[in-house]
Amino acid sequence: MSAITEAGLKVRELEGVERGPEDERQGMVRKVALSSFLGNFIEWFDYASYSYFATVIAGVFFPSADRTVALMQTFGVFALSFVLRPVGALFWGHFGDRFGRKRALSLSILLMSGASFLIGCLPSYALIGLVAPLLLLALRMVQGFSASGEYAGAATFLGEYAPVKRRGIYCSLIPASTAIGLLAGSTLAMVMTSHLSAAAMGGWGWRVPFLLAGPLGLIVHYIRNNVADSPIYEQMNAELERKQEGAHDAGRPVSPLRTLFRHHFKQVLLSFGACMLNAVGFYTVLTYLPTYLSETVGMAASESSLVTTICLVLYIGLVFAMGHISDRFGRKKVLIGACVAFIVLTVPAFMILETGAFWPVLLVELALCATLTANDGTLSSYLTETFPTSVRFTGFAFSFNLANAIFGGTAPFIATWLIWATGSPIAPAWYMVAIAAVALVAMCLSHENTEKDLGTI
Known about the structure:
The protein is mainly α. The protein has a single domain (2-14, 24-230, 255-445), classed as MFS general substrate transporter like domains (Growth Hormone, Chain: A), CATH 1.20.1250.20. Helix content is 81%, strand content 0%. It contains 22 helices and no strands. Helix 2 (23-52) runs parallel beside helix 6 (101-119) and helix 16 packs antiparallel against helix 22 (427-445). The protein is globular. It starts with a helix and ends in a 12-residue tail after the last helix.
């Protein structure tokens, strides 16, 4: 609860930065920030719940004598839910660039929260057999499709409202909301695991976080229907209309998708490279490690959940701090620093995690989380500044979601498989080092766009 309060205070601090005299504009910023926060909170609360309840879900939908096989099947569904993310990113990006950020975000939240709610209603394998995991997979893929526009759309929307010199800290609200969603999921998992029996958890306990998504989604949809599109997006439309006055073709000359791949393909590749580390680091450090500590290292599930909860509280504050630092020193420098830190620290960190001792594990996870915030707290503003207004939503969404589909959604599965295939509990660390090296090359080749004027077509 303190973390959520802290986020609320940050939102109010961000609103205070707006110096426009109109109360209406300040109220609009408040609504944009709140809807952006809640939309991402719902998405990541759901994904956190799926990861933290993975062992319970494995028993409900994938009963197997081999616990590792059941767990890999559960993470396999987690990975497959990301298959539609690049497709969804192109759809929502195109929709948001053509018809407005507001309309895209209002529709996507309904699909995402509705699919989450239905997962909480699914019957188990014991009741309907193979149909149960198939329905789970179908709903997870609907989630993946709809959620692919949420993070990018919310960051784009908020970034286009933000003052130029404070864009980093404004956009850091988006990754902070994802961390708070994870914190809520880990806290709920810890409390329920401590107070409910295994039978209660398998029967109804795991359903609670998914059912909560329904009413929360309706609230976000209502807020988003009562905000205006970003001034920068409306300015772009006005400029296009002026340019087309007197022209024979009154429509837009090209589609956002065609413009993106024809004129901004290099930016897409470099953005994809930057997002690779975020995808693997985020899903490994914040969603896979609790399972790793309990299933591979042998740490008590309650202790691993407690470590994750403590780390997420620090993570939220550091995300805002990194957003502020990127405003001072530039996105590129901060993102390069994150790449170097992951290359140097990850393998020694996993060696210490292998001990399973509470305090060393806590300190190592805190170090990994601090390193990840340098990437996560900066990436949303970096991607917002990389693309022009006419393709900003599409470019952000596609590069971010393609990286998450290939490297993020598969991270828990690949980590579990690497340990099984090599017999080494630190095998996932070498995978992360390799990804960080690729991301470092991409960032070195990219341009510094901090304080870029976003009001260009």
